[in-house]
User: Fold this.
Amino acid sequence: MKDNNHNALNFHVSVDCVIFGFDFGKLNVLLLERNFNYGGIEYNDLKLPGDLVRKDEDLDTAASRVLKELTGLENIYLKQFAAIGTPNRLNRIDRDMEWLRSIGHPEEVVVTVAYYSLINIDQDKIDKFGLQANTRWHPVADITELAFDHMEILSDALTTLRTELRSNPIGFELLPAKFTLSQLQKLYEVILGTNLDKRNFRKKVSNMPYVVPINEKEKGVSHKPARYFIFSKKVYEKTRKNSFDFSV
Assistant:
């Protein structure tokens, strides 16, 4: 993202955001598409969304701003998970440096503070967030290369997400307000990269008072309609132990 008021920017500190979304089949990440000419060659590649921190912002405010500018969304789950200050992190590839120069970025070492965010999406909503024109959802499993050191940041974010998923109820941030147990199981399977035994999974969930069944079932499905559930944060806060304990 380009800020025309350079005097308002801290050129040594940035934020990068790994924005995850789940659509019941795959885990996605929101990426910016770069299109630029370098050495007479047109490049089209991808990078994580991010920006330099403004001098009047704290880190969390900067990350929230990046998220809102990209998606129009506010009050979304956002967590800081890493700080990266490798001296050559921006100049590993010449064309990355040329792209930075083209947007007026000084050739200085930048420490980036990385955040990951969780957004619930499905096939009906995936393109309805008012995303910037050069912003697209991409399946995490399909990504093999990103600009700068963003592949490493994405990998670290995925590792952090998998760890947090087992100990905190963050998975519900990726689901609609009401969901079926099959959808919940699929979420865990996709993110953890494993198949889970249906009976054991449901036994585990049945011991969670904060996963609450509601008097509503699926409609318009070819199979037996499944009951919907909701996650009650209020019940969770009252009943939680030291950890979420979802070692499924």
Notes: The first strand starts at residue 9 and ends at 22. The chain has a mean pLDDT of 84.
